Amino acid sequence: MAKCKYCGESAGFFSRSHKECEEKHTRGIDGMTHLMRRYFSGTISAIDFGAKLSRNRDPYFLSEDDIVTCADNVIGEFADSLRRPFNSDILPKIKGFISNVGVPYATLNKNGTLDRLSLKLFQGYVVDFFAKGVPLSQISISTDSVTSVLPLSRQQRDEAYYNVLNKAADKFMADGWLADNEQRMIESYTSSLGIALNCLPLQYQTESLSRIGQAIVLKDLQQGALPKKPLTVPVMLARDEAPLWVYDNITMLQEKITREYVGGSRGMSYRICKGLTYRTGSFKGHPVERSFMETIGIGQLVITNKNLFFHCPTASVKIPYKKLVGVTPYSDGLEVHKEEAKPKRTVFQGFDAWFIMNVLNQVNI
Questions:
Q1: Spatial CB neighbours of 127, under 8 Å, sequence gap ≥ 6
Q2: Which CATH class is domain 243-259+291-362?
């Protein structure tokens, strides 16, 4: 006979549980969820919460997985309910919950619900820099308090910082103009966190954020200054050369010309013997050139105050501004024409060309 998966007693030949045990377990799940909600709403203390949780686990056949499922749902609800400014008792309440549930942190966070809660708190405190002007040194104290209870990886924290920066960029650029005080806030934020707007990771290169970074670079150029934060680029620069911007995932194409000799002939062939033919007549031909755009590679396009550099695993190309005789901007790239004996079209594809066009107008070529 099969045994009941809840009480362990015989359940008959064709059943895995007693009906009354199943119903009791369902009531236990509902009761545990209600208990956790009461705790987060503040109607029950941490001590009473821990005592009731321990007292009701066995009688209602609640496994660790059951506890985790209930906690996952309630923590998610709690995270969704949070609004800035956060109350000072939030972190002690979360800490008390984790302690009393009695489940390892990694198990409780198996679906990432604690990470989601942590990121919401972390980002909420960081937002205060732009929303209230709270110094980043003070914000750091608050975010450290969050991660001491709800740990986040370095990547997750960076993602939170970038998300806040992107939201600020969208807000600042909503009117199409970056005010001086907004620029100072962006520069202070990025400088404190070591973020370079002109060399952002690809996943954080939003349109608003890129436009802000480019606008700052162009303002500096107008005043005869170069970017304050040096960039690490994969090319060799001259002593008086400074990188202004780096584009990732750019395709370089270059015109390639092929030549072939084509023509026709006329006349007659005479068979002299087996395997030998004599032909009379004439042949007239002429060379024909054909061109096509060949993909050189996909890599980084580095914009400096003196040159364009393209670098990929298979090629590295330098185009001095002084050698340019023409530039054609496209909606998704740029075509450059160089001064050379046999000029070939060169196209860079995968970005908006407005920034480079403005750079060329500002730099002293």
A1: 84, 164, 167
A2: mainly beta
